[in-house]
């Protein structure tokens, strides 16, 4: 037998890592995220105070526990005011049945071509992403409307489920995206912190508009990647994506006119929201209010606006907004406790020792975020991981817009990656019993590959994310 002497200084050094792993286990347990996050953090805070008392060491700096000030700052944050407005816009458009009209007319236009329904789903997913940004509603709507038709017409179930899930998650990266709003808030704070630590007295700012503009080209490139995959499948495996029989009752010109008419309303809303941001007429928060009003006007034009429906939309908005802010409160407590354990210094020390410098550190962060996407939601990753790693990465000289877009594309995979991808669960809930969960998992794999390829392209050519903001804002 040999004796082992406990060394409290080693525990003190690695306590932030123990805390991070412990919180990840709590989140993966299925307990409500906001309360699990805050409860675990407070538990570790109590442990730190006890360790300080028991060992007479400085495990934990409880002077950093300033949660009330953090909470007030969150509620007073102008950037986060866009969240309930964009949620309202998305829920209202989902209730107005914009997607139904788009899918029907796009299918009539492209359906007679091999892979036509796949093209239609990709394009409608892109348009809904740019006008609603709500992944669950998009996946469920397209699953209910297009999946039965695709299966009936002989489409491979794996492709049909995969393209619906992937297209439904485009709302994570194509603006106006709630993910980008939350990322801009976290990265903006991290950017200010990084510049302050470098002694910059007049720091630059990162806005939601910066990320919105930076994400436009990568988001559209991702859509092109999906369309190219559908085209390749139609060429190499035509039996998997057969053409629909031609409808003799409607000419191609009529189908085109109907498609353009159904496109007019969501495109008008997209131009009003994104156009006002790009033109510098409105801030993203102001543009979100324009979008909310525009969504109500579209619902009225569709004949889908009633007081009972407005009540449903408001209740849905309240529920989603409350969830986001409660998670943010819990994440703020986690961040404070993590810093009180010296977590910032530990992360900085680890990144400084990492081979490859900023490139190596970025690769590790992207890999960790991708793996966490298997078990955690994008909101949890945004609020827990980003505040820890972003200040260090930005201090190493990385462009904040490029970093935000890279993280946004990476977080999009958290909705697709088995076994806990939320888009997979949404589609599983509305898919017929003949579709197995394994088919859904296999169906999304090519699209996950396309997203990983998009990350590689962005890593090699950062200008895809940084060029347009320079042009628009003249930096």
Secondary structure layout:
Blueprint: H1 8-28, H2 33-55, H3 67-75, H4 82-95, H5 98-110, H6 116-131, H7 135-145, H8 147-152, H9 157-168, H10 178-197, H11 208-236, H12 252-278, H13 284-301, H14 307-340, H15 343-352, H16 357-372, H17 378-384, H18 386-395, H19 400-412, H20 422-430, H21 437-460, H22 463-473
Helix pairs in contact: 1-2, 2-14, 3-14, 4-13, 4-14, 5-6, 5-12, 6-9, 6-11, 6-12, 7-9, 7-20, 9-21, 10-11, 10-17, 10-18, 10-19, 11-19, 11-21, 11-22, 12-13, 14-17, 15-18, 19-21
Note down, in words, how this protein is organized.
The chain is built from 22 helices and no strands. The chain has helices spanning 8-28, 33-55, 67-75, 82-95, 98-110, 116-131, 135-145, 147-152, 157-168, 178-197, 208-236, 252-278, 284-301, 307-340, 343-352, 357-372, 378-384, 386-395, 400-412, 422-430, 437-460, 463-473. It is mainly alpha-helical and 475 residues long. The chain has one domain. α4 (82-95) runs antiparallel to α14 (307-340), α6 (116-131) packs parallel to α9 and α6 packs parallel to α12.
Quick take:
This protein is mainly alpha-helical and 475 residues long. 74% of the residues lie in helices and 0% in strands. The model has no long low-confidence stretch (mean pLDDT 81).
């Amino acid at each position: 037998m040999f004796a082992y002497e406990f060394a409290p200084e080693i525990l003190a050094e690695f306590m932030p890592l123990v805390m991070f792993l412990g919180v990840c286990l709590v989140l993966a347990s299925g307990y409500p995220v906001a309360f699990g996050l805050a409860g675990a953090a407070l538990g570790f805070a109590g442990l730190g105070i006890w360790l300080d008392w028991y060992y007479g060491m400085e495990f934990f700096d409880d002077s950093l526990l300033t949660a009330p000030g953090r909470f007030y700052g969150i509620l007073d944050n102008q950037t986060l005011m866009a969240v309930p407005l964009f949620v309202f816009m998305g829920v209202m458009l989902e209730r107005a049945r914009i997607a139904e009209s788009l899918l029907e007319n796009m299918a009539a236009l492209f359906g007679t071509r091999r892979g036509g329904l796949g093209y239609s789903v990709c394009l409608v997913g892109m348009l809904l992403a740019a006008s609603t940004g709500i992944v669950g509603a998009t996946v469920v709507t397209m699953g209910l409307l297009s999946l039965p038709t695709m299966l009936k017409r002989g489409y491979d179930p794996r492709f049909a489920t995969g393209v619906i899930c992937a297209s439904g998650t485009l709302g994570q990266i194509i603006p106006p995206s709630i993910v980008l709003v939350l990322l801009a808030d976290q990265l903006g704070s991290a950017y200010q912190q990084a510049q302050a630590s470098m002694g910059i007295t007049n720091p630059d700012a990162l806005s939601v508009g910066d990320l919105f503009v930076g994400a436009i080209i990568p988001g559209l490139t991702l859509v092109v990647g999906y369309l190219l995959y559908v085209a390749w499948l139609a060429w190499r495996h035509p039996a998997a994506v057969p053409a629909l029989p031609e409808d003799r009752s409607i000419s191609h010109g009529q189908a085109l006119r109907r498609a353009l008419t159904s496109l007019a309303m969501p495109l008008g809303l997209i131009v009003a929201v994104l156009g006002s941001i790009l033109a510098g007429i409105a801030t993203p928060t102001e543009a979100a209010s324009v979008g909310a009003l525009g969504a109500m006007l579209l619902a009225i034009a569709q004949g889908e606006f009633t007081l009972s429906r407005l009540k449903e939309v408001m209740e849905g908005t309240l529920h989603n907004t409350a969830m986001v802010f409660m998670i943010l409160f819990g994440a703020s407590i986690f961040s404070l406790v993590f810093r009180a354990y010296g977590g910032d210094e530990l992360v900085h020390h680890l990144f400084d020792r990492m081979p490859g410098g900023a490139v190596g550190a970025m690769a590790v962060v992207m890999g960790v975020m991708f793996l966490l996407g298997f078990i955690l939601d994008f909101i949890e990753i945004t609020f827990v991981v980003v505040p820890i790693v972003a200040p260090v990465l930005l201090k190493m000289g990385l462009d904040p817009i490029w970093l935000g877009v890279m993280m946004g594309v990476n977080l999009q995979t958290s909705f697709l990656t088995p076994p806990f991808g939320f888009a997979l669960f949404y589609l599983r809930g509305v898919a017929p019993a003949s579709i197995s969960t394994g088919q859904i998992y296999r169906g999304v794999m090519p699209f996950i590959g396309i997203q990983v390829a998009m990350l590689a392209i962005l890593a090699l050519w950062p200008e895809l994310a940084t060029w347009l903001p320079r042009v628009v804002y003249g930096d």
